[in-house]
Design goal:
132 residues, alpha+beta, Glutaredoxin, five-stranded mixed beta sheet, 5 strands, globular
Amino acid sequence: MRVGIEGNLLKWTLNQILGKTMTDHLSQDTAPVKEAKEKETWQLRLYVAGQTPKSLVAFANLKNICEKHLQGQYSIEIIDLSKEPQLAIEHSIVALPTLVRKLPEPIKKIIGDLSNTEKVLVGLQLISLINE
């Protein structure tokens, strides 16, 4: 089952973790934008297998990273492979949770709970964006 950020998947549990709804400040362009490069919306997909602790932590970490470093210029799609296992083969997902950056290109993949913020920033190529 594909669930956009406004879907029910993980919502109740993540409300407990984050203390707010999953839709707070997601995809809202609230920060001033200086360059055209920064206006790009980052399209991210998080592949999970149900509401496992690791999946919940991965989503919470991803949301925190996006809010801090992308200032509302992103969208997150959660794909539950326990509901649609064929997508693992179609999208070349070999481990869970897996984060896929669809846009901006090139496509990037990061496996794990995203707890090492520095590695996630490097993997998503956000470090150069931050340092500019």
